[in-house]
Amino acid sequence: MAREALKGEAIVSELASWFGVHPTMINQGRRALLDGASGDFGRGGRKAPVIDEDQVLELHAEIGD
Fold first, then answer.
1. CB-count exposure of residue 62 (10 Å: 0-12, 13-18, 19+)
2. Cα(5)–Cα(23) distance, rounded to whole angstroms?
3. Do 15 and 4 form a contact (C-beta atoms < 8 A)?
4. 23, 13 contact by CB (below 8 A)
5. Can you say whether residue 49 is alpha, beta or left, with left for phi > 0 and alpha for psi between -120 and 50 degrees?
6. DSSP annotation string for 3-59
7. pLDDT at 34 (0 to 100)
8. Which helix (H) or strand (E) holds 63?
9. Hey, which of 29, 40, 62, 64 would disulfide with 2, CB 3.0 to 4.6 Å?
10. Nearest C-alpha neighbor of 12 from the set 4, 23, 20, 28
11. CA distance 26 to 39
């Protein structure tokens, strides 16, 4: 629903009718999608992965390395 709202091909009331929900739900979903997407494209690049050294040692012992 939110993606359809972002496309802008139909107005919110039409989308609400198509999906059988209240227009407020369309707006909330669109807002949540936009808020979530902003974190994906923020500055700073990728975060370094967290490596559990104890787990690495255990796995190396298991494979005989």
1. exposed
2. 10
3. yes
4. yes
5. beta
6. HHHHHTSS-HHHHHHHHTS-HHHHHHHHHHHHHHHHHHT-TT-PPPPP--HHHHHHH
7. 82
8. helix 53-63
9. 29
10. 23
11. 21
Contact 12, 27 (CB under 8 A): yes
Residue 42: CA count within 13 A, CB half-sphere: 10
One digit per residue, the tens of pLDDT, for the chain of length 65 reads 777 877 888 888 888 888 898 989 888 888 888 887 665 555 556 666 788 888 888 888 888 85
At 64, list the tokens. 């005989």
5, 17 contact by CB (below 8 A): no
Q: How far apart are the first and last CA of the chain?
A: 50
Under DSSP, the state recorded for 2 is H
